[in-house]
Automatic annotation (TrEMBL):
<dbReference type="GO" id="GO:0003676">
    <property type="term" value="F:nucleic acid binding"/>
</dbReference>
<feature type="domain" description="RNase H type-1">
    <location>
        <begin position="1"/>
        <end position="72"/>
    </location>
</feature>
<protein>
    <recommendedName>
        <fullName>RNase H type-1 domain-containing protein</fullName>
    </recommendedName>
</protein>
<dbReference type="GO" id="GO:0004523">
    <property type="term" value="F:RNA-DNA hybrid ribonuclease activity"/>
</dbReference>
<dbReference type="InterPro" id="IPR036397">
    <property type="entry name" value="RNaseH_sf"/>
</dbReference>
<dbReference type="InterPro" id="IPR002156">
    <property type="entry name" value="RNaseH_domain"/>
</dbReference>
<dbReference type="InterPro" id="IPR012337">
    <property type="entry name" value="RNaseH-like_sf"/>
</dbReference>
């Protein structure tokens, strides 16, 4: 490493290089910025200095001539770095998946809760059985009578605990069934301590608009509720 001074008579190019989000020549500017940072990280003392045009610097006319030739090119062969290509592919794939999700999932139980693709790491409790139950609640395939009757494993879809003819589905189990009023009240109190007053299905199953720490706490409280009801120990 040593000291390097790069001289240029183009103020506009210096402004572009100094701008973290240039409005034009974005790829070229960012490529130059990356190379500058790479050299600085390696220990080079690098300075880019503006100089007035046509000040008898040797080779200036040659540079101007080359620049004029460059402006006449219809296409510029810009060699993209592998990292840039990778991020572009990832972004395009993400946009495509999100479009497919928006189009095809909104009539599914999970689609009504999860609006964005991506990993819900905060939805994992750590207990394999509890995580399996939570996943079943999110996709509507869990050992409650409505689903069990759908796959011919229960003679009825009705909740066995309620006097009225009410289907035992995820909403009923989490928010309505009288048998679980006490653990549900404890759940509501715990959520209230987190500043949450509107307990609903989307919130409980991981789709709330909240920070990751709050979402993790909601998952923990839901796990406590599931254990307290003992509903799935009966299955």
């Amino acid at each position: 490493p040593g000291k390097v001074v790069i001289l240029t008579d183009s103020k506009s190019s210096l402004y572009l290089i100094a701008n973290r989000k240039p409005n034009s020549y974005m790829y070229s500017s960012q490529a130059i910025q990356k190379n500058i940072l790479r050299l600085v990280d390696k220990g080079w003392d690098l300075v880019i200095q503006w100089i007035p045009s046509h000040c008898d610097v040797e080779g200036n006319d040659v540079v101007d001539h080359a620049a004029n030739e460059g402006r006449q090119l219809q296409e510029v062969d810009y060699p993209e770095e592998l990292d840039d290509i990778y991020h572009k592919v990832c972004r395009k794939t993400e946009v495509r998946w999100q479009s497919i999700w928006d189009r095809e999932s909104q009539t599914t139980p999970l689609g009504l809760i999860k609006k964005k693709i991506g990993n819900w790491f905060w939805c994992r409790h750590g207990d394999r059985k509890i995580d399996t139950i939570m996943t079943g609640l999110r996709i509507g395939r869990v050992s409650l009578n409505k689903y069990l009757s759908f796959i011919n494993l229960s003679p009825t879809s009705i909740c066995p605990n309620c006097s009225q003819d009410v289907d035992e589905d995820c909403t009923h189990y989490l928010l309505e069934c009288d048998r679980y009023n006490i653990p549900r009240q404890r759940l509501a109190t715990s959520l209230h301590n987190l500043g949450i007053t509107n307990m609903n299905l989307t919130l409980l199953l991981g789709g709330a608009e909240a920070d990751c720490e709050t979402l993790k706490r909601i998952t923990e409280e839901l796990a406590t509720y599931i254990k307290a009801t003992k509903r799935f120990e009966e299955s």
